[in-house]
Amino acid sequence: MIGRDEVLHVARLARLALAEEEIEPMARELSAVLEHVERIGELDLDGVQPTSHVVASSSKVDVTRALRPDEPRPCLPREVALAQAPAVSDGGFLVPSPQA
Amino acid sequence: MSEPATTPTQPPEGGSPKQKDSYEAVIGLEIHVQLATVTKMFCGCELSFGEPPNTRTCPVCLGLPGSLPVANAHAVHLGLVIGLALGCELAPRSVFHRKNYFYPDLPKGYQISQYDEPLCRGGALGEVRIRRVHLEEDAAKLIHVGSSGRIHGSDASIVDFNRGGTPLAEIVTEPDLRTPEQASEWLKLLRTTLRQLGVSDVNMEEGSLRCDANISLRPACSAELGTKTELKNVNSFRFIERGIRAEIARQERILHAGRQVVQETLHYDPASDRITSLRSKEEAHDYRYFPEPDLLPVAIDQHMLAAARQALSELPSERAARFQRQLALSLETAQLLSFRSELGDYFEAALAAGADPAPPAQALANWVTGELAPRLGGYGREHDDRGGGSAVADEPVDGGVGGDPVNSRVTPAALAALVGMTAAKQVSVGAARQVLDRLIAEGGDPRAIVEAEGLAAMDGGDELAAIVAAAIAANADAAQRVREGNAKAVGPIVGQVMRQTRGRADGTEVARLVNEQLGV
Amino acid sequence: MSAEVLALSAAQASAAIGAGELDAGELFSFYRERAEADREAGQEGLNCFTWVAREAPGKAGTRVRETVPHWPDTVRMHESAGSSLAGVPLAVKDLFCTEDAPSQSGSRMLEGYTPPYTASAVARLREAGAPLLAKTNQDEFAMGSSTENSAFGPTLNPWDRTRVPGGSSGGSAAAVAAGLAPWALGTDTGGSIRQPASLCGVVGLKPTYGSVSRYGMIAFASSLDQAGPLTRDVTDAALMLAHMIGRDACDATSLAHPQQIALPSAERLDGVRIGVPAELEPEGSSIEDGVRRCFHRALALAEELGAQVNTDISLPHAPYGLSAYYILAPAEASSNLARFDGVRYGLRAASSSKVEGATDLLDMYTRTRHDGFGREVKRRIMLGTYALSSGYYEAYYGRAQKVRTKIAEDFATAFASVDLIATPTSPGVAFALGEKTADPWSMYLSDYFTVPMSLAGIPAISIPCGLSDEHARAGANGAEANGSGLPVGLQLAGPAFSENKLLDAAHALERAIAFDSTAAHV
Which of C84, C107, C168, C198 is an active site residue? Predict the structure, then answer.
């Protein structure tokens, strides 16, 4: 079970505002899903290697090719880089100051 | 965002306290080094050196939806070079992780870094042990623009992503430092080392070398570590000393007052000498690391290792030690060959040339540093027949070829052959100097020059004996004085022999024959 | 002429164009008008599309912006695999970035977003001759199994408009089923190609992980996401796949497929060993009877074609697949979606503050993400953040990765004794709109059979294997039913890189099943 305080803590980590009326349903739905996923607790997984890259586990793949030569590629024109930004100033992306 | 806690610091009161409740500082450093690649860590944008904001970006380093990182092979290479130079263990397989947190200078909402499987572990530089070296990407730059028309009445910043994604190596030391001065000195050693490796500009003012310090205090004779704080961005040698000193003083005041040091991240402001808290604790420490699924583990193969080893230019002090240990060179010669690496390179090439007879290493080194280098200009050492006692010149002896023997007509093999012949007494030292002059002027094979010019050493047989007899006869006065016990009077006789033989005769042999014939 | 054109599969249309019997521009216009009509009808139509091309692309339509950081070997045409794509227009799931066309991943967060670059898979298909026809509707950020989680409204199932098309590639599946596009590109994370293909009666293939570049796919769960075709028949799936696969220097996890994809020709299954895993009954639910009947009919047909069906194989950890998946995928998603912060693109919430955007940084982040993300996306971000947070990583993420290892081992063991594994694609047929939205886990269960293959990174295909007669179906306009029964999908899975074997078997079965793939055309 996941409670209200935990929901608010996780929402803060995820930078999600939750309206008051959204908190309880979120706690309930998360708890329900967690109850299902916690079934993996039944398994004996001692000594099992975790898989984080299903490709890298395959012997057929030459993983050293996954690196890139240090060769320059064209950059985006600045107006393209900034084109979709909600707020722009002085050639940069405008944001509220973090320390404000 | 929470209000930053402000802790003013006072200058430490008159000298370090040596009372019974005095504390010892335990200091470790985390150094971020911008690597000298052409492009960024995970995309093909060229690194930025003061270009206008946001002109060095692409979908990857802007964190556009759908873009994917691909690691820069050269950054991995430079990371390996650093690891080798610091004597680290290189991981055959290392893993990139995502470090998740929100900040406007972090376009993806996570930084790609390395976590529990870094590129390099262990190692040391000088007295300080290295814990790890790992690769990561730099953040973008936030530029404070003050109150903006767009964001009324409140502070605004703009984000410039030119720097975002610049490759960084993070070097983390063990907490082996004890004083601010020691920390600063060690950082200088690291900077020199990195500069010689050519892996980074290591310019603290421009931010290509950045340092954070972890500081804790413990009772002077305790082995346990106290609670540490992390002092961010002490980015000059002066400020690192002052910042660490200020933080030590702050912690001492807390402990003397019977309070506890709080683990937190701090910022040192050199202008005010104040230390401020950067983030509250609960904000700072849930980065939710997990393996970066967009990147495969970095698998180091033999080819990459060999390339890193080859790029690892031997550090001068290591080379000097090797010359002393393996070749029994004198300390002075070993250092001269190491600190002027072009002489060392030439010397090693000559030594490896396989000359027959082979030149003794010390003699060859003396010829490189004492004969060849001074003749070519640049820094060198005047040759001294009696060996030892020579002086290192401060100024180039003359302009010439700039002192690098590789650019001269004398091949390493030619010098090796000449020194070998000299050591085997096939050529006298004097004749050898003439041959060297010819080699510098025209190049060629020393053995051929010796034969063509008839400079081969006389073997001390009848011919030389006859010349010696003639010289004694021609300098009867001198001969008489020698017989009477004035050994120094032998000079004119030997001189005539040497002139007549044009240096082909060995000076020692000549002196022996003269004394023999004079019966002394 | 229009009925004849509509009857052509993509491969047939491309052959007709190649033979000079059909004009590529006319073909494009034909489908463009059909797609545009559906788009204009809004919720009166099927709502398959979020964008439709205005005009047929000229040669200029194939340009690639010079500033895109593609590496030299990124976009390279494959010379093999029979014909080129000869101008057969392509519908593309919204989450693929397409330069100058909106790419919104079904989210309000990206409403109106047009990227400055094109996804590698789309670029390859375009280079091979398939112009962009339209962008298709989807569950927001590919999170869902019904396409109800789209910010642009749900897509309806052309077989029965009171029902969902499946998801998340529901727009792509419905468009192909309804004959609004000759074929479509989708993505599959835990079943998002195969399940909607099953619910819409079309073919859907999820390739081996890494076969197709992910560059330019707006990510859901990076270690699982894979692009693939949704088509009318198996031959079309092979044709599209042949022009998508290959190493892409922009995607470090992409790889060179060891085989060229051939157009399938098998008509028999002699000697093919097909395994049916013992673990067929999902937790807390069961396979619908109509689905079960169709599945067993398909197995019987396979035996008639010469296959040996082996029901002794076991995938003991497969029942834990959904649990592992609903840790791993949300965890990766919580990180992948962190970039939507209102700074560089997309929505920035107008907040209570007096300004354009917010005054306070934290406020800007939290309100933007509150307003921009839909309910299911928020739920998964929360779930994933929780699973990765301090103190929970080992119990959730770490264990789920180990389950993933066990599932991959189960498949490896099974493939030692069989060539392919067969299951129903989904435990049920298309369900009613709104039926499963209140209970997330009931929705997640429709991916019960598809998730294990995703976790193992192996290829799997869903082909229609008949109509379930269990449900009456509402007709195109509500009242009249134009037949009865809803499509059922058969899933075939093979070892990594076995696409050719998979396509051949699917092709042989498809012929024997003789499903009418045009039955739901509008």
Answer: C168
Reply yes or no on whether C484 is catalytic: no
User: Is residue B435 domain-resident?
Assistant: yes
On the question of pLDDT at C110 being above 60, the answer is yes
| A89 Cα to chain C: minimum distance (Å) | 12
Residues B442 and B473 occupy one common structural domain: no
Query: Domain for residue B240, yes or no?
Result: no
Residues B70 and B52 in one domain: yes
Asked if the structure places residue C380 within a domain, the reply is yes
Is residue B334 helix, strand or coil? Answer: helix
The reply to whether residue C214 touches residue B68, judged by beta carbons under 8 angstroms, is yes
Q: Chains touching chain A at 3 or more Cβ pairs under 8 angstroms?
A: B, C
Q: How far apart are CA C156 and CA B398, in angstroms?
A: 90
B126-185 per-position pLDDT tens digit? 899 999 999 999 999 999 887 655 544 568 999 999 999 999 999 999 999 999 999 999
Same domain, B396 and B470: no
Do B394 and B493 belong to one domain?
Answer: no
Chain C residues inside the 8 Å CB shell of B66: 95-97, 103, 115, 119, 215-219
Cβ pair B72:A100 closer than 8 A: no
Annotated catalytic residue, options C93, C206, C436, C501: C93
B430 lies in the same domain as B490: no
Distance from CA of A20 to the nearest CA of C (A): 12
Write the CB contacts of C475 (distance below 8 Å, at least 6 apart in sequence).
C160, C481, C482
8 Å CB contact of C327 and A11: no
Q: What is the pTM of this model?
A: 0.81
Question: How many other CB atoms sit within 10 Å of the CB of residue C80?
Answer: 11
The total of structural domains in chain B comes to: 3
Q: What is the CATH number of the domain that holds A3?
A: 1.10.20.60
What range defines the domain where residue C327 resides? 318-400
- Whether residue A11 is contained in a domain is answered as yes
User: Does any domain span residue B16?
Assistant: no
With contact defined as 3+ CB pairs under 8 Å, the chains touching C are A, B
Q: How far apart are CA C337 and CA B152, in angstroms?
A: 29
Tokens of B111: 């930084």
Strand pairing category for B96-100 and B290-291: antiparallel
C-chain CB neighbours of B296 within 8 Å are: 252-253
- Scanning every residue of chain C, which has its alpha carbon at the shortest distance from the alpha carbon of A99? C361
For C329-383, the pLDDT digits (tens) are 999 999 999 999 999 999 999 754 444 444 689 999 999 999 999 999 999 999 9
Q: Is C378 a catalytic residue?
A: no
Three-class SS state of C420 = strand
Q: What is the DSSP string of C348-391?
A: ----SSSSSS-SSHHHHHHHHHHHHS-HHHHHHHHHHHHHHSTT
Counted domains in chain C? 1
Chain B residues with CB inside 8 Å of A52's CB?
Answer: 95, 290-291, 293
How far is it, in rounded angstroms, from Cα C312 to Cα B363?
83
Chain B hits for C361, CB-CB cut-off 8 Å, are 1, 104
- Identify the H or E element spanning B163: none
Among B431, B453, B475, residue at a domain's last position = B453
Residues B420 and B389 grouped into a single domain = yes
Whether C168 is catalytic is yes
C331 in contact with chain B, both atoms CB, cutoff 8 A: yes
pLDDT in tens, A4-25: 999 999 999 999 999 999 999 9
Regarding whether B135 and B59 lie in a shared domain, the answer is yes
Q: Is residue C327 part of a domain?
A: yes
Domain boundary among B306, B341, B369: B306
Q: Among C103, C105, C107, C192, which one carries the catalytic annotation? A: C192
Q: Is B80 helix (H, G, I), strand (E, B) or coil?
A: helix
Which residue range(s) make up the domain with B430? 314-453
Based on the fold, state whether residues B127 and B176 are members of the same structural domain.
Answer: yes
User: What are the start-end ranges of the H helices in B404-455?
Assistant: 412-423, 429-442, 446-453
